[in-house]
Amino acid sequence: MVEAEQLTFRYPGKSTDVLADVTLTLRDGRTLISGSSGSGKSTLFAMMNRLYPDNCDGIVTGRLDLFDRPYDTYAAGEVNRRVGTVFQDPDSQFVMQTVEEELIFTLENFHVPREEMMGRVEMMLRTLRLDDYRHRYIHDLSGGEKQQIAVACALIGRPEWLLLDEPLAHLDPETAARFVRWLDGVARSVNVVVIEHRPYVWGDFFDRQVELMEGRIVYDGPFEMRPDYTFAPITSEKGEHNLFHIPNLKRKEFELAASDLTVAEGEVVAILGRNGSGKSTWLRSLARNHRDVGLVPQSPAHLFVTSEVAHELAYGHDHPIEDVLTRLGLERLHDAHPLSLSHGQKRRLAIGVMLLSRKRLIAFDEPTAGQDEASLGALYDLMEERARDGQAVLFVTHDLNFARAANTYYLMHDGKLNGPYDASLWEQPELLQAHGLWMEEMG
To answer: N or C: which end of the chain has fewer CB within 10 A?
Structure first.
């Protein structure tokens, strides 16, 4: 499928290559693409499906063949008949209002006969257990639900290859485990390439691993299972005064109840629950109702208001930015445009902006998505420092290892929060399982 020889990719006006002398052959199987945030993984993906350089001003040198043909001999969209792709931000892929319309639109682009379309839509939704989403509006879905719909759209065209960029980042543990099991079955008829920062979640799914560092391949061989990272609860003294008492919040017909939920100075709160349980909707409602809440949403790029990373961090205050810039791994990107960053880097930039804002409560929606272990360690340290200084931190996550950094937990089910719980929550498998937070390997 892919043959690259000394492949190099660089943006115009930049002195550093995003990809440098990449020599790689992908023929079949299940391949993991790993590496630190910003190492070139997503750019390599975009080259595989010819999104780059067609849709950007990148400069390409070296050789790149796709399906035994030079990449630049393909017409626009031709490769997409054979390669299905799901990006980190599924919102960027949707063009229709409902799930059914999106699936039909995909088939129309492939000129599938109309009499065949509905049968393929029904089969795909049934196979993925997404029947109930058929007539749902995509903009009403949670991040995890959108991710599943994006995968359905990629597979309905029956591609030979499936490229997935962090497909589990927005899925709860129960849904993630089910997705990997399902993909394990269909991978017999489609080759799979996955970008993933948490390969341990996939078990023995992969047979090959390609690791990138600063745009270069540093490992290409059999998949190596590595131990997962762990975090201890952040230790900070909770203040005597509660920063917020959060009453019931309602949005349209979806009740978001948070009875007697309070957040104290120095408290670190994790909100956990299944996809679609209302976590992100509740978090947005919280930010709208409290001016002292600083929110980093799942897709933070729309928050940026300047043309340079350093200016973005310094915007609206006079606090020093160098420490946060360095610790979040953005020091070499200080003059880069925020929108030119990788998804993981954009998220870290938005987190840095909010940490420097000195809001009384800082809230993150899926802060670990797109982050390598070093980045998570830096985020943990910064959160701990803020908590010890009296700020409160609240975050929504499906990453149960990072969730253990919290010292208070709430569980959401059907729009209702239950809690608070302390660290003894992790010793209650029945409660965790009831909220989609229990996997067999946890036991």
So the answer is: C
